[in-house]
Amino acid sequence: METLSQLANGFAIALTPAHLLWCLVGTTLGTAIGVLPGLGPALTIALLLPITFKVEPTAAFILFAGIYYGAMYGGSTTSILLNTPGESATIVTALEGNRMARSGRAGAALATSAIGSFVAGTIGTIGITFLAPVVVSFALKFGPAEYFSLMVMAFATVSAVLGSSAVRGLTSLFFGFYLGMIGVDLQTGQARFTLGIPELLDGVNVIVVAVGLFAVGETLYVAARRHAGKDEIVPLRGSLYMTREEWSRSWKPWLRGAALGFPIGALPAGGAEIPTFLSYWIEKRLSKKPEEFGTVGAIEGVAGPEAANNASAAGVLVPMLTLGLPTSATAAIMLSAFQSYGINPGPLLLQNQPALVWGLIASLYIANIMLLVLNLPMVGIWVRVLKIPAPLLYAGILVFATIGTYGISNSPVDLILLYLLGAVGFLMRRFDFPTAPVIIGMILGPLAEQNFRQAMTISDGDWTVFFRQPLSATLLALAVVGLVGPRLYALYAARRLRDAAQPGEA
Amino acid sequence: MRGRERAPALPETAIGLGALAFAGLVLWQAWEIPVSPLYAKIGPSVFPYATAGGLAVLALLLVAQAARGGWQAAEEREVALDRRALAFVVAGLLANVALIGWLGFTAASTVMFVLVARGFGSRTPLRDGAIGSAVALVAYFGFAKALGVNIGAGLVERLLGG
Amino acid sequence: MLTKRDLLKASVALGGLSLLLGRPERAAAQMVDQLQIFVPAAPGGGWDQTARTMEQVLKAEKLIGSAQITNVPGAGGAVGLPQFINQWRGRPNALMVGGLVMVGALIANKSPVKITQTVPIARLTGEFEVLVVPADSPLKTAKDFAAALKTDPKKVSVAGGSAGGTDHILLGMIGKALGVAPRDLTYVAYAGGGPALAAILGGHVTAGISGFGEFGEQIKAGKLRALAISAGERQPDIDVPTLKEEGIDVELFNWRGVFAPPGISAAQRESLIALIEKMANSNAWKEELRKRDWTPILLTGDAYAKFIENENERVTSVLKDLGLAS
């Protein structure tokens, strides 16, 4: 009951004309950014961080949340029409969505993805509404030992699901650890990795890293690939309405996708990739028309992953708001926005800033409605955004990258760092290293380190502190399960497969 | 295994070795961290050493993967680098660093804009220059100025009363 | 294009301007056309707010025409100060905002420049620190805390801001006053008072230290118990004893002040002091301080310079005891 009245207060804040306008700007900008291949919400929010100097926090976060949700919607449009995922989380959507578009069903694909995003996004937002206060109620029990164990669990799950690219993913993560440790050590005041450059004593700004990897790296990558053929935009044909059959094939995948996406997104380091792939796999198994998968495109393969994607985007906000733990690159950037206001996300946020948090949550409901309108009837506009000439687009991106970084510090050191990171980002893109783990490692790595050392200082050097406290011990046990579980299951599945195959061969 | 039959991949080997060299650099830098008498329990260099160690192990795994044929997607391998385009973009970035200090944001950005657009195949430098300076001015006045971000005013900005 | 001759002309003109403004008998009476304020920190922080509040008040009181604020963030001022000392040398209408944090940061980072190389103009505001425990803590008073600390400093963990910062310095001073070796203290560093709050409220540490503003709301709500404040005397409206009252002879303000660059004339220094005094005595300034909960602790000229030297010595010695300076 208290939650509902808080939410009502939140709506009272979010429905003021100014906040509605911020929400509209955010969702529009987010959709545009999501549509443009290679540009994501993390980069956009990083570039817009200077608004935190002038705009009040509630408005700024409504804007950022609109961008965050909007990018998820916009990304699917590009995946479907261009086969180039606009956002890493929409890779799966491209699999079936682009095939549907090629076989003349672009309209239905866009519709099921937009409506599915709306349904799952709303379910996810309801999830935040009710889960956040629950997490907060026991979050104060989290001391340094528990935080450290939680992060060990996060890293364990990340490495377990990276699969064949685990080595590259972990290399990215460790590179992030390195970047995060540059600067003066919090516990002892000693300079680390600064190479004697005084500008590095405060550490490397996460904005410089995000803009370097995502904007500069991406620009270099696209420039270097001009010899590669261009993807054709599939012209928008067919009606935007779904037939009765398409509806009946869509609604279950939406709900299943949301059910997968939200909880996995809310787990530390859950992210959006895992639930979208899981959802795709499940829908392929459950579909009555599996022959459409990978051929003419199956609508379930768009509906499920899109829903999972948006629900997980909502889920990611739960650990960020309640524990101060960012589990995606975008959340990491939002965390630094909180910090630039001197607001600390964590167990006390809901209590200290109820207007901000509930206004933000209410605005998420509103953003979903706006995005449904922006992305269905007005999809034609976004197709036109895809046609901005590349020279102007990328040159413009670099101009804004300059503002986003040089503007904060006025220091050429940051600009040089930005371009060095751009070169690294280029190599990472070309050699298929994921870039998001760099940002996550950069934020979570030092957090894990500091919590570990805080716990050890408090316990006066007693290592058993991590196992003695039940909460911490449970989390560590879960980490082991996360690390070993999938491998055991794979072993078990392989044996069953062999057992099943043997009679036939014998 | 399919991968075993492939010849070692040179670019990936270079990446792996580069990562190994980087791990060495991290190790050396971790060694340089002054040891503080404070909080001897877990000092400031424990995690840096662990990071260096982790990076070294991962780099060796990368080299091993490269020796077994690498991991780069076939499509990516076949696309030849457009060196000319890259050179123009890099020139644009360098020009920006070099000029922003004494010419100011707008002028430096315009130069960068023209060079980068050229790299992406534009053949109309004058038009690009006009668009670039417009974008930079809008960004400067509409964004930086309105938000009170101090972003290197130069000749152009002063002329326009920035 | 800019040519050497243009630059020459400009510098001659600037020189003339500074001569004009520097004339002693007119300086005090004349309005400063443009004041340049150097903030060795990122926009948004305490020093930046001080600079922007100064700009606002000085303009409203018609003491200056305009102000230009330059931010050079980094390492508690250790990045900005060398620039202020070298590149801003001799500028007549320039001020840098700084404070206790900078004194500590310069020492801890072994900076090649010293704050005493600037020309101290005035100390403006300060914030005292508060020592807190969770509401259900067995420690009822600062005397209980002192007794526990003396018995076994390893068992008394104290959370606060980064190592070597104001909170850590205060704990070091408390330890010293009680005869506990500062290196035996169990200090748990967080990114600031705010982030430390959850650990204190959750009972994961014994006590916490931070600026009063960071903990004020939780103290009012009864979730934290304030044991003592670091001010020299009781503060109106705050029913918390000082450390001195509790038998711990320590006084510490997290003060902020302004400095002029080296190389200015005595007359230029006098006119800046006069300007700041006028500002500090204006109603607009007092109103702003009240709004922001900043305590006015104005101290100017030679007394301020003396104070800086004392702080420098005091902080150096505490940081040495803590093992953070050599």
Question: What does this entry look like structurally?
Answer:
The complex is a heterotrimer of chains A (506), B (162) and C (326). Chain A has 506 residues and is mostly helical. Chain A has 20 helices and two strands. Chain A has helices at 2-14, 17-35, 41-48, 57-82, 91-139, 144-161, 166-181, 206-224, 244-266, 273-286, 300-323, 329-340, 349-352, 354-375, 379-385, 390-409, 412-430, 436-458, 465-468, 470-505; strands at 183-184, 191-192. Chain A has a two-stranded antiparallel sheet with strand order 1-2. Chain A is globular. Chain B folds into two domains: 3-78, no CATH class; 83-155, no CATH class. Chain B is 69% helix and 0% strand. Chain B contains seven helices and no strands. Chain C has 326 residues and is of the alpha/beta class. Chain C has helices spanning 4-22, 24-27, 46-60, 80-87, 100-108, 142-151, 166-178, 193-201, 212-220, 266-280, 283-292, 301-322; strands at 32-39, 64-71, 94-99, 119-134, 157-160, 186-189, 207-211, 224-229, 253-260, 295-300. In chain C, strand 5, helix 7 and strand 6 form a beta-alpha-beta unit. In chain C, helix 5 crosses helix 12 and helix 7 packs across helix 12 (301-322). Chain C is globular and about 60 Å long. At the A-B interface, helix 7, strand 2, helix 8, helix 16 and helix 17 of A face helix 1, helix 2, helix 4, helix 5 and helix 6 of B.
Q: Could you give a quick summary of the protein structure above?
A:
With 162 residues, chain B is mainly alpha-helical. Chain B has helices spanning 10-32, 46-67, 74-78, 83-103, 105-119, 125-145, 155-159.
Secondary structure blueprint with pairings:
The complex is a heterotrimer of chains A (506), B (162) and C (326).
Chain A: H1 2-14, H2 17-35, H3 41-48, H4 57-82, H5 91-139, H6 144-161, H7 166-181, E1 183-184, E2 191-192, H8 206-224, H9 244-266, H10 273-286, H11 300-323, H12 329-340, H13 349-352, H14 354-375, H15 379-385, H16 390-409, H17 412-430, H18 436-458, H19 465-468, H20 470-505
Antiparallel strand pairs in A: 1-2
Helix pairs in contact in A: 1-14, 2-4, 2-14, 3-4, 3-8, 3-12, 4-5, 4-11, 4-12, 4-14, 5-9, 5-11, 5-14, 6-18, 6-20, 7-18, 8-16, 8-17, 9-10, 9-11, 10-11, 16-17
Chain B: H1 10-32, H2 46-67, H3 74-78, H4 83-103, H5 105-119, H6 125-145, H7 155-159
Chain C: H1 4-22, H2 24-27, E1 32-39, H3 46-60, E2 64-71, H4 80-87, E3 94-99, H5 100-108, E4 119-134, H6 142-151, E5 157-160, H7 166-178, E6 186-189, H8 193-201, E7 207-211, H9 212-220, E8 224-229, E9 253-260, H10 266-280, H11 283-292, E10 295-300, H12 301-322
Parallel strand pairs in C: 1-2, 1-3, 5-6, 5-7
Antiparallel strand pairs in C: 3-9, 4-7, 4-8, 4-9, 4-10
Helix pairs in contact in C: 5-12, 7-12
